[in-house]
Structures are given as C-alpha cells and as structure tokens.
Design brief:
It is a single chain. By secondary structure, this protein is mainly α. Helix content is 57%, strand content 4%. The strands form 2 sheets. The protein has a 5-stranded parallel beta sheet, sandwiched between helices. The longest helix is centred in the C-terminal third of the chain and has 21 residues. It is globular and about 80 Å long.
C-alpha cells in the first residue's frame, strides 16, 4: 500500500464490508487509489496507528453510512469519523475532504454522524453500487474541485433559526476559529460590547449564518459538566479511562452551548493532559488541542480560562523558545490577575523547565506549593525535576511532602520506584505498590513499575503477570515505550523459558517491522529491532542495525541505551562504558540498579566488577548511605 497524497480512505462498519468492497473496486477500476484492503492490516496498536496516519494523510474520506452504523452507538468507525471531523477544523472553507455515501435508505436528516458530515452533499449507493458518474465526481474532488458542496437546508439569514441546531448543523458545533486579523479585532470589540450589556456580540460567520454570542459565564448545566471535568484533570493520577469519560462530558457540554468559550478552553486543557500523561501523543490529539484552544480564543479572547488554555497549548505543543516566551507572557499577566490560581505557577514552572531553566522551574513550584489545593502536585513535580537533575537526596523529601498531602497513586508509584533504584529496598517498594488501587495496573507505567520491582526481586511469574495485565500490544508512556511482547520475552528468558521467550520476541520483531514500514528510520523502533535481532540469535544483524542508528542519529535513546550496549557489545566494552559513565556523573544509574538490575548481568563476571560496585555504593550521588554494602551473591551472580 502506498502513502499517496491522492488516496481515498473508506470508513465503514464491519458488517458493511461487502458493500464497501464494491465501492472500493469501482473506484479502483476508475483509477482511484483506495485505502481499504483489510489483508494489508493486522490488529493491535500498530493497526490503530496506521489507521490514524491514513486518516491524517488521505485526500478524501468516504464514510459508508447505513442502518448498521445507525444501530452501533460505539464502534471503531466512530473514532475514524471523529478523527476525520477534527481534521476538517484545520482546513480552509471549501476544501473537499468528506464524501458521505449511504448504502441503504438511511436518511441524512436523522443520521448519527458528526456535524461536519451534514455540511456536504451525500451520495446514494444502494448496496455499494456506484456509477461511473460518481467515480468521476470523486476524481474531480481529488483534483481539488469543490463538487456538490453545500447545506442540506438553505441557511437562514441574520439570527433566525439560532435556537434550532438542525438548521445549521456545522455552526452549532464548530464556530470556525481561523480568522483574519481584522475579524479578530471585530470579535474582540463585539465581546467587549456584550460584556457591557450591549446584547448579542458578533462572531465569525460562515455564509449568511451567525452563531450564538460567546458567553462569559457558563449556563448552570454546562458549568456542572465543566466542574466534573476540571476535578478529574486536576488529579495527578487520572487514568486514561477517566480522561476518556471527561472527553465525552465535554462533547455534551459543547453541544448544549457551542458558544461557551470556557468549555472549549477546558477541552484544550484536557487534550494537553492526554499529552502530558503520555496517554495520547498522536498528531490528531495535538491538532485537537490547537483547534479547541483556537475555538475558545475566537469566542472570548479576554477570558482568563481561555488565555490559560492558550498558554498551555503554546508552551506544551510548540517546542521553540518563541512560543515558550509568548506563553510565559500570557501567564505572567494572568498571575497578576489571578494570583491564587496555582495552575498558572505550575504552568510557568513546566515551561521554564522545558526551556532548560530548572532552577527557575523549581522556584515556581515552590510558590505553587504554598497555595491551597496545589501543594501535593507542586511537591511531586519538584521531586521529579530534582531526580532528573541527579539530585536524588533533595528530591526524596519533596516526594514525601507530596504524599503527606495526598496518597496519590502516581506519587506512590514514584515512591516505589525510588525505593527500588535509590534504596534497593524491594520489599518496601512492593508494600508501597500494594497501596495503589488495582485498576491502575492496566496502564503502561504502573504495570511496568510493578514488573520492574518483581523482576529485580527475581519473582519472574509476578513480573510476567504485570506485563500481561496491559491490554494493548504496544506500550507508550514516558520512559516506557515498545512492544509488550519484548518485555514479556525478557522476563521469560530470565526465568529460563527460552522457547516461550523466542515466541514473544518474534512477535515483538514483527510489530517493530510493521511500524517501521510507516515510520521509517524511527530511532526507537530501530533500536528495538537491534535488540530483538540479538535476542533471536542474529547478533551481526543487531550490531549492523545498532551501527545504522549511530550513523543516523549520533546518540542512542536513553531508555534503551544500557540494554543496547550490554547486549550488543562485548562484556569488556560494556564494563568500560559503565565505568566511564560512573566517573563522568551524575549518571542515570545508581548503586542499587548496578547491583540488582538484570541488564547488567553481562558485566558481572568482569574482574573489576566488585571494585566498581564498591565505588558506586560509596558515592553519595549514587547511594543514600554512601557506604559499601556487602554484595548479595544470590543477586549479583548470574
């Protein structure tokens, strides 16, 4: 399958596959490239990522609408349709992208489809049979010609019909935020007049329609929904399923009142939360954050909540000094207006740290910690920064201060990890993990933290069970990234179950190869390929892939660097590298990990290893006690 920019993506319910196949075959016979063939895809996260990429890259999306889609309130095609709608928000007016097709007598008036689907002309194709004329229309659309675009019902003029969403389906959901500078000035003036009681404010219009005036305060039913969302997004340990539920509430809120700027701003901040938690860092999520922020800004650019969302999106997603400076300027002004809103200090701290100003970031978190309701998250974030700076001894009290305010699941996970890598206290780490509610261990980071603690304890059955508790096939969360079967294979190999380990590694390599087909030369994927080649007995192939990564990037991914060096290089070179790493400092390994982590098993037979371990355990940067501990022969000998 090619990645042609002129491809058509067919989106349909699985029960309508035969009708969709007829559409596909007719279009292909007319010379149109169609992304449809299921034999080219396999299930799992790799499949999901490929679908998302195709929707992002395709030239035209054809949703196949039927009685089947009407009857399925929850299905994967609905995610495809949502992603397609989100993409339309970034397109100029008149850009052809959607071409809805009905294959039975389903009425477009009552169809359960995204609002943007109503803004274009629909085509009937009973049973999936389409005529040559329809194929030609598709080809014209692919050529950029705006064929048959328009509303089902002529839009009313003036303010008539604003209370009836059926009369202007696109306006009630998406109030076009992409405005010329002159229009922005008009909006700002109109909103100012509205706030002074001048009545209805002006907003950007499409055609002859005007959307409802922007609201500076939310309706009670909308505000109730927004309060629920904000309470969840403020949690340090919000689960992905919780964020997904909140996204549903925001969809409800924006349908109740499409002109509520706070609702769109809250949605933009929720998008940022997905990114910060590493739950969803896809392009569609980043685009959604920008779109929701722009929507809010277009409605009420002076609202503190809107400006906070704008600063968050700019500071988080636009990774450059100019954007960080602009976001900081917005936040500094907000700090004067709303000094008790700890979110402003927290965001200033995050931007300062991202801009490589860690001491300034720590100062902002100190300030946020003095505000009610923000102490726990401020101390926790400060602890993480100190850990990343190699100042573990200073970070430990901050983590404990956070836990004194709130026994957050995420902070408990960090505490267990700290007990493992800093203190080498595996029993204490397990006791801390026992405080974390069980539902968290289906998420990537909690599951892999538990697996790591059990792995270092050489409890292989428990370590394997923790990995397998994750419901998806590819882990993607902060320091954890890679095929689940890679980690499962490592545990099985350490347990001496080599045949089972090989099966897992083969599956992992297939996943990596499939992702590389669409993400060519991705550094992390190539590094996993090198590791898996070595695991499966192809050491020369692994070393060749490793060499290619170095030639392309010059450096290795910090998450996989130690594993690559230990597995691919001779033990003497691995030992020399660790020795230099400890000398250069502050390193990202500790005395405890050097003593306990199986990744260093290959160098434990080197003659200088006991002396190396003794130096690490007497180094105050690497050990809480800074004195030599007797090696545990049951652990340090492979």
């Amino acid at each position: 399958m090619s990645d042609s920019s002129q491809a058509v993506f067919l989106s349909y319910a699985s029960q309508d596959a035969e009708a969709a196949r007829r559409i596909c075959e007719a279009l292909r016979a007319a010379g149109v490239e169609v992304w449809f063939d299921q034999s080219e895809l396999v299930g799992g996260d790799a499949w999901d990522q490929k679908i998302r990429k195709q929707i992002r890259d395709c030239a035209l999306l054809i949703p196949v609408i039927s009685k089947t889609t009407q009857g399925r309130r929850e299905a994967y095609f609905r995610l495809e349709w949502k992603l397609a709608e989100e993409r339309t928000h970034l397109m100029a007016k008149g850009t052809p992208f959607l071409f809805p097709v009905t294959i039975d007598d389903t009425s477009d008036r009552d169809a359960l489809v995204p609002d943007s689907f109503f803004a274009v002309q629909w085509t009937k194709a009973p049973g999936g049979e389409i005529s040559p004329a329809i194929c030609q229309r598709v080809k014209k659309l692919l050529g950029g010609e705006d064929v048959g675009r328009g509303f089902r019902t002529p839009p009313p003029s003036g303010l008539a019909g604003l209370g009836n969403p059926a009369l202007h389906p696109t306006q009630t959901r998406w109030l076009r935020p992409v405005l010329a500078s002159a229009v922005l000035v008009i909006i700002a003036l109109a909103i100012t007049l509205m706030k002074k009681g001048a009545g209805i404010g002006a907003a950007h219009t499409e055609g002859a329609m005007n959307p409802p005036a922007a609201r500076s305060t939310s309706r009670p039913e909308v505000e109730a929904l927004l309060q629920r969302v904000r309470a969840v997004t403020a949690k340090t340990d919000a689960l992905r399923t919780e964020l997904d539920s909140m996204e549903g509430l925001l969809g409800e809120a924006t349908k109740l009142d499409p002109a509520d700027a706070s609702a769109w701003a809250t949605w933009a901040m929720l998008d940022c939360r997905y990114v910060l938690k590493n739950y969803d860092t896809t392009q569609s999520r980043l685009d959604a954050a920008r779109t929701h922020s722009a929507q809010a800004t277009g409605l009420d650019p002076e609202s503190p909540e809107v400006r906070l969302a704008q600063a968050m999106v700019m500071g988080l997603l636009e990774d450059n000094d100019a954007s960080r400076a602009a976001a900081t300027g917005i936040l500094q002004r907000l700090l004067v207006e709303t000094p008790a809103d700890g979110r402003v200090q927290l965001e200033l701290g995050r931007i300062a740290y991202d801009g490589n100003h860690p001491e300034e970031a720590l100062d902002w978190y100190d300030r946020a910690a003095r505000l009610p309701n923000f102490s726990a998250v401020a101390h926790f974030t400060k602890a993480k920064i100190l850990f990343h700076l190699g100042r573990v001894a200073q970070g430990v009290p901050e983590l404990d201060r956070s836990l004194a305010f709130e026994r957050s699941a995420e902070v408990l996970l960090w505490k267990s990890y700290l007990l493992t890598i800093w203190n080498g206290d595996l029993a204490g780490a397990r006791r801390t993990l026992d405080e974390v509610p069980p539902q968290y261990f289906v998420e990537d980071m909690p599951a892999m933290t538990r697996s790591y603690v059990e792995l270092l304890s050489r409890n292989y059955d428990r370590a394997l069970a923790a990995v397998r508790a994750v419901p998806h096939n590819y882990l993607q969360s902060g320091a954890i990234s890679g095929p689940k079967s890679y980690f499962a294979g490592n545990v099985l190999a350490l347990a001496g179950k080599m045949e089972a380990a090989r099966l897992e590694w083969q599956s992992a390599l297939a996943t990596v190869e499939q992702r590389l087909a669409t993400e060519q030369n991705d550094r992390t994927l190539m590094e996993y390929k090198a590791l898996l080649q070595a695991d499966l007995g192809d050491l020369p192939g692994g070393r060749k892939t490793y060499q290619t990564v170095q030639e392309l990037y010059g450096t290795l991914d910090d998450r996989l660097r130690d594993s690559l060096i230990m597995k691919l290089l001779p033990a003497s070179e691995g030992f020399a590298w660790v020795t230099k790493k400890l000398a250069d400092g502050p390193p990202d390994i500790t005395a405890a990990t050097l003593r306990l982590d199986p990744v260093y098993d290959p160098i434990r037979s080197e003659p200088g290893y006991p002396a190396l371990l003794a130096r690490a355990e007497s180094d105050p940067r690497l050990s809480p006690d800074a004195k030599v501990h007797p090696a545990d022969s049951a652990v340090t000998k492979k």
